[in-house]
Structures are given as structure tokens and as C-alpha cells.
Amino acid sequence: MDRLRGKVALISGGARGQGAAEAKLFASEGARVVIGDVRDDLCGETANLINGAIGSAVVRAVHLDVTRAADWRAAVDTCVRDFGGLDILVNNAGIFNMSGLEDTSEELWDSIVNINQKGVWLGMKECVTAMRRRGGGSIINISSVAGLTGSTGSTAYHGTKGAVRLLTKAAAVQYGPEKIRVNSVHPGIINTQMVDIIPEAMRSQFQNLVPLRREGTAEDVAKLVLFLASDDSSYCTGAEFVIDGGLTAI
Ligand SMILES: NC(=O)c1ccc[n+]([C@@H]2O[C@H](COP(=O)([O-])OP(=O)(O)OC[C@H]3O[C@@H](n4cnc5c(N)ncnc54)[C@H](O)[C@@H]3O)[C@@H](O)[C@H]2O)c1
Q1: Active site residue 157
Q2: Is residue 72 within 8 Å of 129, Cβ to Cβ?
Q3: Among 20, 120, 192, 238, who pairs with 172 as Cys (CB 3.0-4.6 Å)?
Q4: Closest atom of ligand 1 to CA, residue 194
């Protein structure tokens, strides 16, 4: 129950899905958590739900568009002002699209790159100063199995998630001496609203293919992210953590 006691975490895209599951688990492990999202109402509701369950105001919701540096600065300020500092960043916000190479418009490309790739860089950039003041920290960048392997579509998504993998390693090398650890997480198909756009037939095909024969849950991923956020992973940095039911082992 105390794996994050005394730590402060900032989670992007925390209104729903995996980000919300991570906020809930982190809070139950003693962390104070700021969740940021563009879905302001839902983000507030998620914070209220977790605070109600815990019985204390340990989660704050803020408006955060990950493509905007000013929003990141305000989110970090909230961590420092309300909770005394920042130890953990989960760069979780992301958008998914299945368009193939020629079907991807420039507008779509730019929006996916801005949120999934630029957003991760900006998050790290705006958080390291506060972590340095605490003498270290842990950054978890949510990539995907789509950042490790290709497929017949989702071109921009693959490109951005692959970039997150190497942004992670570059930051891990740069900030290791300051005890700021940086790791990437690579989920397979996780049952959240993000994958509602995948046709049902394709989802059952995947389920029959995955060695563990099921989709992952947001809670499955949250447990791995908790490990990386906590001191249990104190010698892990610059590494890729795959959580896909065995999909990429095939
Ligand atoms: N669900 C999957 O199968 C799967 C698989 C691999 C990786 N992922 C990755 O996991 C992460 C979480 O996805 P999820 O499954 O919880 O999906 P989700 O769609 O439920 O959650 C994503 C959240 O990000 C928020 N968001 C979108 N644009 C934003 C922006 N500009 N600024 C701030 N917040 C923004 C959304 O409002 C939403 O709350 C994403 O990075 C996604 O790419 C998901």
C-alpha cells in the first residue's frame, strides 16, 4: 500500500483509460497525483471518484494539452505548489489512428506527431527541473507494440510510437547521472475506448493470436507503470517494457 508514499506524480491523459487506472493505483499506493487532460469535465470527475474512494484529496485535475508548453508549466506548478514537488511523470496521453501511408493527410500526420511525439518531449523538458530539485525522478513514456513492429496501417501512429522509444533512451542517457530514470512501456491491445475504432472482427482475430488469448486491461498496464514509478525499479533506465500478452513473441 505504500510503494509511492511521499512521492508526487503527474500523469498526462489521466481523464480515462490507462491514465485514470494509473492515477487510481498510484493514489492507493500513497502518492499524490496531478492528472492532466484536454477532457476537463471527465478529468475532474476521475479525480473526484479517486479522492472519494481514498477518502482524501490526493488527486488534482488540471487542464493539460500536451502539445502546449504553457499547459505543462502550469501542471508542474500545480505539483510543486499543492504537493511540494514532482518525482514521477507518466507521458500517457496519446491518440490512435489506423490510416495507412497514402491515406494519411498532412493535417492528420501533424496532429498525431504533435500529441504522441512532441507531447512526450515537451513533458520531459518541462518536468526535469522539478525532478532535479528532488534529487532524481522516474519518467515513464507510454509507447506501444506499434513502436516496435510495423503493420499494414497506422503509419503515423507507428512513427510516433517508435520515436517515443528512442526519445526515452536519449533522455535516459542524458539524465541518468542526475538519477532521473526514463523507461518506455509498450502495451499490446488494451481494452480502453481508444481501440473502439478497431473493427470487432479484427479484435477477435488478435485475441485468438495473442498467446494469453485475451486483451489487456488498463489495470494490467497500471501495475507495470507502478513498478517503473517506484523505487522497486531503481536500476532500470533506458529500457523497453513490453506488456502484450505475448503478441510480439510470435
Ligand atoms: N489501448 C491500447 O490498446 C493501447 C495500446 C498501446 C499503447 N497505447 C497507448 O496508451 C496510452 C493511453 O491510451 P488509452 O488506451 O488509455 O486510451 P484513451 O483514449 O482511453 O486515453 C487517452 C487519453 O489521452 C487524452 N488526450 C488526447 N489528446 C490529448 C492532448 N493533446 N493532451 C492531453 N491529453 C490528451 C484523451 O483525452 C484521453 O483521456 C496512449 O499513449 C496510447 O497510445 C494504448
Answers
A1: yes
A2: no
A3: 238
A4: 19
Q: Where are the beta strands (DSSP E) in 7-131?
A: 8-12, 32-37, 59-63, 88-91
The answer to whether 184 touches 147, Cβ cutoff 8 Å, is yes
Task: Quote the cell numbers at residue 85.
Answer: 514537488
Hey, what domains does the chain have and what are their CATH numbers? Answer: 8-241 (3.40.50.720)
The x, y and z cell numbers of residue 148, run together, are: 516496435
Atom nearest to 16 CA in ligand 1: 39
The Cα 47–Cα 33 span in angstroms is: 9
Q: Which atom of ligand 1 lies nearest, measured to the CA of 187?
A: 6
Q: Which of the residues 157, 161, 162, 228 is marked catalytic?
A: 157
Q: Are strands 59-63 and 32-37 parallel, antiparallel or unpaired?
A: parallel
* Nine cell digits for residue 198: 478497431
Tell me the pTM: 0.99
Would you give the DSSP letter of residue 168? H
Q: Give nearest CA residue, ligand 1 atom 32.
A: 65
Atom 8 of ligand 1, residue of closest alpha carbon? 144
Classify residue 152 by burial, with Cβ atoms within 10 Å: 0-12, 13-18, 19+: exposed
Q: 3-class DSSP state for residue 15?
A: coil
pLDDT digits (tens, 9 = 90+) for 82-120: 999 999 999 999 999 999 999 999 999 999 999 999 999
Give the count of beta carbons closer than 10 Å to the beta carbon of residue 229: 30
217, pLDDT greater than 90: yes
pLDDT > 90? residue 53:
yes
